[in-house]
Design brief:
The chain is mostly beta strands. It contains no helices and 25 strands. Keywords: Signal.
């Protein structure tokens, strides 16, 4: 993964194109932060990261939506805010009729009635029963080998939806010629793939682009200036304190392309 410069890397502390609300209570299963072979989530069951920061389970966005999704949200934020959605384009209407489980080494959302897959991590089949799913305090959901936790088969940080969390993969990979991008929700109560996306420039320029409907350019950061430690189109970037920590306040757009708040973009030098 290529960083903006050889000495700098970027993370967005919070970027949410659509806010999610839900007042329904949730319960945590005995598995804690882990799903192992034979475990499953259904109905209002959840798992919670070890430090009680993030929750994984079924949620219903807003008060009028009839659809449910598997997602990750903050546990201690009163206004439920989803940071990742698995089946964003394949909703279900009854979480008690579906289950999230491990099958052939994959994390799969199944219909209980006929075991039809609704969503899957879609990895090559692995019949080993040592695969487990763990939700981390960083908000990353990982599929790993329980006998060797450093072996990761899949992680949500490599499959972003509308939110970037520190540590996630967000950049342009010159080797694969692919970029990781954030895509807005379709609406405030509809997390399906929306019309707006934020992604790194693919031509080699060190900048980020926000595209709208029909690939219309909405905003670009301008190229990174290593000497001034700022993006060309972000003159409001200022140094917060002595040292290399900088903060840029940029507009955050919702699923309709409207200004919806602020996001923090931090630049820090890599540790040598």
């Amino acid at each position: 993964m290529d960083s903006i410069t050889n000495n700098s890397w970027v993370f967005l502390s919070v970027l949410v194109f659509g806010f999610v609300m839900c007042s329904k209570p949730y319960h945590t299963i005995a598995a804690g932060d882990t799903l192992s072979s034979g475990d499953s989530l259904t109905g209002d069951q959840t798992i919670t990261s070890r430090g009680d920061i993030f929750v994984l389970g079924f949620f219903k966005p807003g008060n009028t939506s009839k659809n449910y999704y598997i997602g990750i949200w903050y546990k201690k934020v009163s206004l439920q805010t989803a940071v990742w959605v698995a089946n964003r384009d394949a909703p279900i209407t009854d979480p008690s009729s579906s289950k999230l489980t491990l099958s052939d080494g994959n994390l799969v959302l199944l219909s209980k009635e006929n075991e039809t897959p609704i969503w899957s991590t879609n990895l090559a089949s692995n019949t080993l029963n040592t695969t487990q799913v763990v939700l981390g305090d960083d908000g990353n959901l990982v599929l790993r080998d329980s006998s060797n936790p450093h072996v990761l088969y899949w992680q949500s940080f490599e499959h972003l939806t509308d939110t970037f969390l520190p540590g996630a993969k967000f950049g342009f990979n010159k080797k694969t010629n692919q970029s990781k991008k954030l895509t807005s929700w379709r609406g405030q109560e509809d997390p399906s793939t929306g019309l707006y996306n934020l992604q790194p420039e693919s031509t080699g320029k060190n900048q980020y682009i926000l595209y709208g409907k029909n690939s219309k350019l909405i905003w670009d950061s301008g190229e990174w200036n290593e000497e001034n430690k700022t993006f060309l189109n972000s003159p409001e970037m200022r140094q917060k304190e002595k040292g290399d920590k900088l903060e840029d306040r940029l507009a955050c757009f919702d699923s309709g392309g409207n200004y919806h708040g602020r996001l923090s973009l931090h630049l820090r030098n890599k540790e040598k």
